[in-house]
Write a structure and sequence with these properties.
The chain is α+β, with helices and mostly antiparallel strands. The protein has helices at 13-17, 31-43, 83-93, 111-120, 126-130; strands spanning 21-28, 49-62, 65-79, 101-105.
Length: 137
């Protein structure tokens, strides 16, 4: 793997075995929810890091009506393999009936950064999390 690529060329067998990187986008209604979900995802190692952006204005249709809401956006750096568990965690913590949780592929990244994301987004199960001294309350 090179310093500038998330994956190497197609003939590099090692790169083909590495989990694909994705950036999960999650919109939330307020900063408290954003901080709570971001902290949980990082503590469980479902994301290596989560950036919280906002406020922003979202315009969308829900139940046949156009709505305009102030929201915050979480950008979670994770792997495609961890995305299903990240989605389950968001659904458990989120107040929306149908939260936005989408994955955008990361096709290029600094090699060391990509390795760091893979190392810190491999998931921690609930039993391991509850045994940690720094686990969230």
């Amino acid at each position: 793997m090179t310093d500038t690529a998330a994956t190497a060329g197609p003939d590099d067998a090692t790169a083909q075995e590495l989990p694909a990187l994705v950036e999960a986008h999650v919109s939330v209604p307020d900063t408290d929810t954003a901080q709570r979900i971001a902290s949980d995802l990082v503590a469980r190692q479902l994301a290596a890091c989560v950036q919280v952006l906002g406020p922003m204005t979202s315009v969308y249709t829900w139940e046949g009506e156009v709505h305009r809401s102030e929201e915050w956006l979480l950008l979670a750096k994770t792997t495609a393999a961890s995305f299903p568990a990240l989605t389950r965690a968001v659904r458990a913590l989120h107040g929306y009936e149908v939260p936005e949780v989408v994955a955008v592929p990361i096709t290029q990244a600094l090699g060391e950064y990509a390795a760091w994301v893979r190392q810190h987004a491999d998931g921690i199960d609930d039993a391991e999390l509850s045994g940690r001294a720094d686990a969230p309350g």
